[in-house]
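Homework help thread (please don't just give me the answer)

Our assignment gives two proteins as sequence + structure token strings and asks us to describe the second one. The first is just a warm-up. Here they are:
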Amino acid sequence: MQDAVCAALMIAGTFFMVVGGVGVIRFPDLYMRVSSSTKASTLGAGFILLSLAFHFNELGTTMRAVATITFLVVTGPVSAHLISRAAYGIGVRLWEGTIRDELRGRYNPDTNVVESVELESNEDERPQAP
């Protein structure tokens, strides 16, 4: 039973890694490629590390695997965000099929600051105080 769980986790991890690799090859711009590779590799490595934890079935190995998974889950999205923001700052183009650029006109590449925008509010929808 343990070998079947290990094999299933390893296959799931391999599947996500392959899907991430295909995404890097197939997606049209850097931002989509970074997103694909980050999500798929984090999930794939997580499943492979869980397989390792189930295979060895020792507390020390399991704790190292869980710590590594936690590290990947925390640092993967942060690093992808920083890479994408740096790419946007130096002017890497968006895909021509991109419908909306939320940062256009709000991002200052010299200071790396995104200017806040006032949210629209409807005074009519707010409940009136008695």
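The one we have to describe:
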Amino acid sequence: MKTNTSFHIVLVEPEIPPNTGNIARLCGATGTVLHLVGPLGFSLEDRYLRRAGLDYWEAVDVRRWRSLEELRWAFPDSRWWYTSKKAEKAYTQAEFREGDFLVFGKETEGLPEALLASDPEHTIRIPIFSPVVRSLNLSTAAGIVLYEALRQTRFLE
């Protein structure tokens, strides 16, 4: 298996510490950069955040940004995939490549509608088959999309 996947997971205004901790652990395990954008709904010193990430924090490349615009400005030539339950395209229809940014919104609201509307070709969803369940857990969704990107780019071989 290759290391340092060169993928990026972006969490825009995450609210729940254990979700971010679990995603940090996922990033550490896969060599994926974790970008935390905007105001967080918790402190990076939160004990639940730390507990979810266990003792893997040193293995994670975590970067903080004031806004998504600031992050996009820092990586102007990159490709961005926005996740939303409202997207037409399933994540399995995306054609990922190394260096892609996988963007996830806050747990209670997702990503802003205007952002999703600005790039529908790069807006993807994870199908949910139950009419009762509104969404998947953020850390579960991040793992699903990241591992599909890894599969497509042959990092899992």
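TA reply:
I won't write it for you, but here's a hint about the kind of observation we're looking for: Residues 8-152 form a domain with the Alpha/beta knot fold (CATH 3.40.1280.10).
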